[in-house]
């Protein structure tokens, strides 16, 4: 059946104010307890309540046209937890409006072919509101910790969302690998000796949405490349479904392979997500298997997130992690002297300077690195050489000046 495209109800001023208050409280609690290994029970409970409340706002009611309501229906059932489940907006073939002309609807507009699952094949579909935790709110310091904490789950999901897009884009340019990845999944499904849980290639093809994503993800180079490629194919394809088979038959083998790779790439899901601690839904083991499977495909297509256009910035990483991780990143990417140059700064200034120092070093955080030694070795760990400028005076140590040899480092040019 075809799923109707409704319009999400807009937020009221009161609802928007509530969301902003919840986001502020969430950011404050995360910053306040950023350095502890385990959250107090009351704080953990409150953060869960905030996420639940925000999720309610994410699930906005969908508004349909009266004519659509008259001919569409709903699926009513019971979900896995025994709750009422209502899925609205499906039209049976016999209830479709008669076409006035081939390729046109009753209103004279072209009929748009819709995927049976109701998904628009134009790229990653984001069905939830984006909740951004600003780096400025996370000023909590953890220099006294003996060990570096794992990266926050939300940040891991945002980073792997970018990696998923880049991996989709890379896979779409390598038909032979895309074919093999899909064939691999088919074998897992068909032969009973195997199991198909926890794979990165989700072959329906159903596009995985990004419930958590960094600001500006749709403007990433991979996202733009995917969208441009998709529009190019759409312009060539017939408008009606009846002509699609004959059109595909007329393609050359290379064209079919390229289209196959493009479609298959939409099935990639390399996302990290937090496993359900109560044992329902996606388990941590399934997520681990998914990431391992994604690493295998990444090696096959020779994915490099630096080549894909990712750079560490205050917004996408440096402002989201403690000072210890900022210094660790600068030390790995720009050298020990660069790290010493900024180790006295406050977190906000440190993050900005780190963005400048790491801009052209090719440094990547762990979730974006390839899981093989050869790729890890490409990160620039050597101390840079050349001419450059030291930190501006207002950011330098109050009681001493930086050594003169530090002013000759090209990666240590501070942002004015």
Percent strand equals: under 5%
Average pLDDT across residues? 76
Q: What is the number of beta strands? A: 5
Q: What coarse outline follows from CA principal-axis ratios?
A: globular
Unreliable segments of 5+ consecutive residues:
116-140, 378-389, 397-416
Strand order of the largest sheet: 1-5-4
* Secondary-structure-derived class: mainly alpha
What is the terminal-to-terminal distance? 58 Å
Put simply, the count of helices is: 13
Bin the helical content.
40-55%
Radius of gyration: 25 Å
Succession of helices and strands: EEHHEHEEHHHHHHHHHH
Largest sheet: 3 strands, antiparallel
Task: Describe this protein's structure.
Helix content is 40%, strand content 5%. The protein is mainly alpha-helical and 416 residues long. Among the domains are: 152-305, no CATH class; 318-412, no CATH class. The strands form two sheets. Strands 1-5-4 form a three-stranded antiparallel β-sheet. It has a two-stranded antiparallel ribbon with strand order 2-3. A hairpin with a 5-residue loop joins strand 4 (73-78) and strand 5. The radius of gyration is 25 Å and the shape is globular. The protein starts with a strand and ends in a 40-residue tail after the last helix. 23% of the residues are buried. Mean pLDDT is 76; it is low at 116-140, 378-389 and 397-416.
